[in-house]
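Recap quiz, item 2
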Amino acid sequence: MFVDTICTYQSPYREDFTIKGYRFGKGDKAACILGPIRGNEIQQLYICSQLIKKLKELEANNCINSGKEIMVIPCVNHFSINTSSRFWAVDNTDINRMFPGTEYGDTTSRIARDVMDAIHEYTYGIQFASFYMSGEFVPHIRMMETGYQNTSLANLFGLPYVMVRKPKPIDTKTLNFNWQNEETAAFSVYTNRNDTIDPISARQAVSSVLRFLTRMGIVKYESHSGYISHIMKEEDLSNVYTKEAGIFHNYAKAGQEIRYGDLMAEITDPYEGNVLEKILAPTDGIVFFMQTEPLVNESDIVYRMIHRLHE
Amino acid sequence: MVILMIETVIAIGLPVRENLTIRKNRLQPVSARSNMPRISIVTGIHGDELEGQFVCYEVARRIECEKEKLKGIVDLYPCLNPLGMDAVYRNVPKTEIDMNRMFPGNTEGPVIEKVAAAIIADIAGSDVCIDLHSSDTFIREVPQVRLSEVWAEQLLPYAIHMNVDMIWKNATKTVDESTLGYSLNMLGTPTIVVEMGIGNHIDQKNGKQLADGIFQMMSHLGIWDEEPVQLRKPLVSKDSEIEFIRANASGVFLPSIAYHCEVEAGDKIGEVVHPLTGEIVQSYYAQNTGLVFSLREYPMVYAGSLLARIIKKSEEVI
């Protein structure tokens, strides 16, 4: 294993901001795996640390295939993690809205450029990402429909679901979008958490990456075959909305199969405690996303369901 | 006589005994007709941008003083992000989302996207929309119009009436896709994005200058019964014709010049110093003669932090 310095920026009073890349194996730039870009992506940091631990073992046992190189960047933005800021602590900009970046731009644009320069030649790119809505997902692979996306490859991670979404204008500055434009087969892996650690889904994420690397001939790793993924489009998900605002009691959980009319959640009055709304399942299906905040607005999306899918 | 109508664009219940309410004030003559020209003046997408507050006040005040001159509809939207403004926070609190990256929104999406969609639906169809921004809290800006390259030629005839010091064509960040301005222009509502001043402050001089420009625009649109006059001749420039001066080291930036001044090539702009060691880390000089239209106010810098922008003197003046 070699530890490279991707970039270093001096800070007026903090220690240098340095992004490190952990390289395993030698040869073709086969796969690159990226951890947190935002300061609240703690689960993603944990997953990367476990992946590096596992790759060290595999390398020690000669299980990285010859002629293949893997790089793991366990954290793109530790400055924000250490100050509990979601975005770049100095000016609140989101590095994941700065890609592909420029060497002549703002600090975060330069960081994005430095990262892009280090990763754009890899054949496969895997990012442990987070969604802008706070909540829990069923573990899945997410891809943007750029024309370069390949859902068959995404299936090789063996996670239960692969979701393809049409990019919105705001997505064109993300790592995933720009990585695909650089002709890297880029995948975003979502587990159920962001700012807390769930070891079980973290293990599932590590296994899914090692399974993918094995199937692409990059490492040797004996693992369960995983799932034949259910591939779907984001627009096919059914949203479940609130009608009332108040305290949210969620009874349906991510991954759970629900029947039409089942009680999914209740909203109670924040002052008087009475039930303002019972949220009933609008369809049969699997809960793909659930909102986890204790308070909800009127018209919030609290669940996203995979319509008419059964376990 | 002028009728003031405070209308709710959208109201959504917040968790505890409050609504998130976006309001507008429609000012129109008593004899208003549906086919009257309409201008929308929008501000407060970012909670730390307050310059537009004074402009909205000033526009409403002047209309009230000379109400007989109002011949069309003026819609004032003084605050599109009321939670952010209340919390002295640029983005939408709790979500941490930049509201000006959420347009055109989605009526079926999360709350913030629903709000964005409602705002777009309400403004669309105006003869002109003016989207007023302050700078952030880091850089002070002279009053300027920023135009996306896509719409620059189409919008320039409107922008010249705004009484700004400069018009920046192809300014990418504030006018890119997913902003209010870009989305409205896509829908055929000519929308001018204005930047001025600095975050969390109001400069009344800037505000009066912009208000003059808005009344001039209203005269051209037939909304304000006054002979239009050209108040100020703006410099017009493209991205490639603007000099960006950025820090290449971290430290504290001490400017050597005043904001909104003309510099000669070779003039010192400022220096980055290190208070711990007492050393000057780097000094910065203008490469071109021109107007400093952006100057850093917040002194802490990293490599890449913007220190100043200069519009070259030779640029076109309309």
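The longest helix of chain B spans residues 204-221.
The interface with chain A takes residues 12-17, 20, 90-91, 95-98, 101-102, 108-111, 114, 136, 138, 176-178, 182, 244, 246, 249-252, 274, 276, 300-306 of chain B (CB under 8 Å).
End of item.
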